[in-house]
Fold this protein.
Amino acid sequence: MYDRYSSPTVVQKYGGTSLGDIERIQYVAKRIYDTYCSGTKNLIVVVSAMAGETSRLVELVAEVSTRTRPRIVDLAVSAGEQVSVALLSAAIENLGVKAEPLLGFQLGVLTNDSYERARIRKIDIDKIRATWSQEGIPVIAGFQGVTEDGNITTLGRGGSDTSAVAIAAAAEADFCEINTDVDGFYSADPRVVPEATILPSMDFEVALEMASLGSKVLHARSVELAAKFDIPLIVRNTFKENSSQRTIVMSHSESEILEAPVVSGVSAVRDIAKIAVSGSGDHSKLISAIFEKINQHSINVDIIVHDQMGSDDRTRFGFTVEESDLEEVMGLMESLNSNDDFSQLSISSESNLAKVSVVGLGMKNSHGVAYKAFDVLTASNIDIKMISTSEIRISCVVHNKDCDQALNQLHNVFIG
Ligand code: ADP
Ligand code: ASP
Ligand code: MG
């Protein structure tokens, strides 16, 4: 007889490529079965949809109508996880262990009603405990939740990492494994920067910054939650069972942080757009009118550059949004022209842009990083369109076509 109470509590999350076909699903089932049989009885499995499936569903919805209500979008795009949960559960049971497939609403993943980017409010783990006590493995659909009114929501693309960590927090797990198609969290996307190296250990702060700045190996919100509940994340390759390569993301001590490299990695977000507005009149009114409009339409604004009054008494204002929001934002900006408070607004935009960033805890105590970054980009004839910085990062907006080269150059100069 096993002793359930001495068993660690472990969450294993499997991403889309790990479940891309039947062979892979059977491989993953065997790994879960082996983990369970070797003593990890308090095991929780969280899955994403099979590779490409969520994108296929997103496209189907867009083909039907470009104005589908977000609640209906979520109903369609959450369906991919239902299939993978069922197939993986069947494959586990085929090996001889009971699996309990659970969709978000069946488990009780309660979210707010911000469809397509919902936030988890509460998770009920009764069904997980009940499954364990019946000697079974809960297999849970990531990415999806349910509102108080019973409507299905999704957490944003890549959100099954966040489901896994939120479930790990609710179940007080010892750690959460993120099983994916690369060997760990690298200093850059290894598909873009061949020289990228695995970061064996990362502080939550660096992982959060890199994930927020485009390193999609972890959903940013998952790192935020892991840091909040102090749950170590292990990023590893699903298909390399005995590999020692992996990344552990956890909180580091003061001294480790002091010794942290100046730059740990580089990341990029592609397909962003820049909007420039300039006008005379009441500067503060103009800025608050712009943000009021954008806020009313729940559009995410990223970099903001404000140049107050040149010699010509005009306010110049620039900001970036996701390219998919550009048309809507331009419509909102044009509508400001009809406001009598602002005369002769000049509004322009540029799309096909990318934000490349250099991230490192050591930047807090180091200088010259910005200079080095600008220097290497300029030497490569890469036009820098905007700059933004924080204590541990420097970001530059460049053209999409220059993005890969910029990442490689920055990686080369800072990491080697
Ligand atoms: P999953 O389907 O397992 O959730 P994702 O496609 O969401 O996988 O994330 C894994 C991908 O993230 C990798 O294939 C890689 O191309 C990309 N990636 C981007 N930045 C990084 C990075 N810094 N380290 C590792 N992978 C990265
Ligand atoms: N299946 C969802 C997506 O493709 C969630 C995830 O993969 O994390 O975005
Ligand atoms: Mg992912």
Q: What stands out?
A: Residues 79-95 form the longest helix (17 residues). Residues 15-16, 48-49, 54, 80, 142-143, 157-161 surround aspartic acid (ligand 2) (CB under 6 Å).
